Automatic annotation (TrEMBL):
Domain Ricin B lectin per the UniProt entry, residue ranges: 45-178
Gene3D superfamilies registered for this protein in UniProt: 2.80.10.50
InterPro entries cross-referenced by the UniProt entry: Ricin_B-like_lectins (IPR035992), Ricin_B_lectin (IPR000772)
Signal peptide feature range: none
Pfam families xrefs: Ricin_B_lectin
Protein name, as recorded: Ricin B lectin domain-containing protein
């Protein structure tokens, strides 16, 4: 079913039904991450990010963003919650409009591989888009067999060209929208402690500890990735929380790693901003504290009671 992109984003949280020790594992809505959902007959009031299934954002070249007199280049880039050149408005008429006023469209004849650009808005079909809510594809109205596509291999690298290509339902053609948030992740059991990667004498940079005001090392971006989320450091954008090597780490990842994908499971009975982080690769694994008060990823039975519950606070 096709709907305008204005109704594209649905919150992608939750996991299997069940209950364990008073902790809810059901599918609920979360305030940790936001979605945009609206009728196709109205306009979305706030600008949102367009995020690929591998976690890269639709990005306008920063110099082109400032110079609205010419065509602007579009590529994929690490999501930056405060970046105006990654925010887009979605109109009920199918336009995808940047916060600088330019609209997403095509600059040349309609052929496979033609680069997507942003330029002055018009009524042209090549500036009109449809969203397929079942596949995550963004299709151009000029030819609905063609989809918004991240070109080439190594999709995890920045600066990949955005073009149109015959729809294949591949990872490089799946998109969602989100209002990305930068948050601090605070311990539920001790409100003085936050997850951070500030270098320490102990050698354990990834930890929970007290923090100082202004520490970027304690700020995290929750970004969509294939029906789940990745937790990226704002301070070191190439670092994500993952368990690829068995233990919880903050480091570089590859685009296909399920070990770096997490379900954000709301804990409404504890508080509006309370949640669990459950791993997609190993669904019995949660982030919490062990008996030595080290930050780890493990099964509930090996974690200190309540330490697997986290509270978010926006930066």
């Amino acid at each position: 079913m096709k709907v305008y992109l204005a109704v594209a984003a649905l919150l992608l949280v939750g996991c299997g039904q069940g209950d364990r020790g008073g902790v809810s594992l059901g599918d609920q809505r979360s305030s940790i991450v936001s979605s945009s959902s609206t009728s196709s007959s109205s306009s979305v009031e706030s600008a949102n990010f367009i995020v690929s299934s591998i976690g890269k954002c639709l990005n306008m070249d920063s110099l082109d963003y400032l110079d609205v007199s010419d065509e602007a280049k579009i590529n994929s880039w690490d999501c930056a919650p405060k970046a105006s050149n990654q925010r887009w408005f979605f109109s009920g008429e199918g336009e995808i409009r940047s916060t600088n006023g330019l609209c997403l469209g095509l600059g040349e004849a309609y052929l496979s591989g033609i680069e997507v650009i942003a330029k002055e808005c018009s009524d042209a079909d090549h500036q009109q888009w449809l969203y397929d809510e079942f596949t995550g594809a963004i299709k151009n109205i000029a030819n609905e067999d063609y989809c918004l596509d991240i070109f080439a291999n190594n999709l995890h690298l920045n600066g990949r060209v955005i073009n149109i290509w015959p729809c294949t339902h591949g990872l490089n053609q799946r998109w969602t929208t989100a209002d990305l948030k930068t948050i601090k992740i605070r311990s539920f059991t001790d409100e003085r402690l936050f997850v951070n990667i500030q270098p320490s004498d102990s050698g354990r940079d990834l930890k929970v500890s007290s923090i100082l005001e202004g520490w970027a090392s304690a700020l995290w971006v929750i970004e969509p990735s294939e029906n789940s989320y990745r937790v990226r450091s704002l301070w070191k954008p190439d670092q994500f929380l993952h368990i690829q090597n068995g233990d919880l780490e903050s480091g570089a990842i590859e685009s296909g790693w399920s070990s770096a994908r997490w379900l954000v499971v709301p804990q409404g009975e504890v508080g509006e901003n309370a949640f669990l982080l459950r791993n997609v690769w190993k669904p019995d694994i949660y982030i919490g504290l062990n008996v030595d008060n080290y930050l780890v990823a493990d099964e509930f039975s090996n974690l200190v009671d309540g330490s697997y519950i986290w509270i978010s606070s926006e930066d």
